[in-house]
Write a structure and sequence with these properties.
Length: about 350
């Protein structure tokens, strides 16, 4: 396992996308786990999905911060605003930057490509430029399992070629990795990319399948299960994702020179996934059982009458499956939350959050 070479205690840390699903959970963990940090979160609060969930996440962070010895500041800001980003960096002297801000979603990228260019490319470029001009100890950024495209080899390894994206979203995430590598090489910026695999959990993104399924089932509508239920996904519980991110934050790639005396790029990429793909039909069955248990659905709910098996959608892939060997070796960690346990926590949260709806 790699040694810790970035001490987060007492440091200034930036988390972009802080009102998002992963970002808000990461900020919670940092406030609870480290002392005297100056934690700054930014988010543009887009209406891609229900902004009330984003405000609820921020409210929980405000409450948590009041009992913390660390400082928490939220700024409504778009990473595509270079002037605002430059000002934020010059005022805070961040030691660690975690870039989670991005326009998410594969299908949305087919109909709304501009949002992905602005946030995922221009926004990430602005973060890279800010890290270049304000020396940071470590830049950690979100990539995605979508970069593997229609890769036939499983499990997916970070050593695999990923040159055939099947969506614009995937192309922007691969671009982020290439941009980060170039900046690491040119300006000696330690950077680590994280390919997340199908993240789920309480207060998640309503555009994700498990959340959308729940909404429709509760409303008595029919859910569509793509590829006739033959898709497999490496569902990863959000707490496992956050644990992986925090461990990575503290272990920056070492700066070193090559045989030519020039810097080798201090750059790494890891998969963070459960290393255990689940069939979509099995996933939906467990979700239904946990929704019944949490009293979101009635005990006699006729599930078969509310499901429809349909063909694959454009931009989708039949399987995602993470090889997490490098993460285990370097970080001493492997996601392991069982699917039922994670969906139970989601179902309980959903029942509580929407109890008066």
């Amino acid at each position: 396992m790699l040694d810790i070479n970035v001490n987060l205690n007492g440091k200034a840390i930036l988390v972009t996308g802080a009102a998002g699903f992963i970002g808000s959970n990461l900020c919670k963990n940092l406030l609870q786990s480290f002392s005297n940090i100056n934690l700054v979160g930014i988010d543009s609060i887009t209406d891609y999905y229900d902004v009330n969930i984003k405000f609820e996440r921020l409210s929980q962070l405000e409450t948590l911060a009041k009992g913390s010895k660390s400082k928490w500041t939220f700024v409504k800001m778009d990473v595509a605003d270079i002037i605002a980003i430059e000002k934020l960096f010059s005022e805070n002297h961040f030691a660690v930057v975690v870039n989670l801000a991005a326009q998410a979603g594969v299908r949305y990228s087919i109909t709304n490509p501009d949002a992905y260019i602005q946030s995922n490319l221009i926004g990430f470029y602005n973060i890279l430029e800010a890290c270049r001009h304000n020396e940071v100890e470590h830049l950690v950024y979100a990539s995605s399992s979508s970069v593997y495209g229609s890769n036939k080899k499983v499990p997916y390894s970070t050593d695999d070629k990923v040159d055939n994206p099947v969506s614009l979203y995937a192309a922007t995430k691969k671009s982020n990795e290439l941009m980060a590598h170039a900046y690491s090489k040119l300006y000696n910026i330690p950077s680590t990319g994280l390919r997340f695999f199908t993240v789920y959990g309480p207060a998640g993104r309503p555009d994700m399948a498990y959340f959308g399924f729940t909404n429709k089932l509760k409303a008595g509508k029919t859910i569509q299960i793509f590829n006739y239920g033959n898709c497999k996904r490496d569902f990863t519980f959000v707490d496992d994702i956050v644990e992986g991110v925090v461990r990575v934050m503290q272990r920056a790639p070492e700066k070193q020179n090559g045989e030519d005396g020039l810097p080798l790029p201090p750059y790494r990429v890891y998969n963070i996934g459960n290393n255990s793909p689940e069939n979509l039909l099995d996933f939906v069955t467990i979700l239904q059982e946990e929704l019944v248990r949490a009293n979101v659905l009635p005990a006699d709910y006729d599930f078969d009458a509310h499901k429809e098996l349909v063909p694959m959608q454009p931009g989708d892939v039949p399987v995602t499956y993470a090889d997490t060997t490098a993460l285990e070796q370097d970080m001493g960690f492997k996601p392991a939350t069982p699917l039922r346990e994670g969906l139970r926590k989601f179902a309980e949260w959903y029942g509580e959050y929407y109890k008066n709806v």
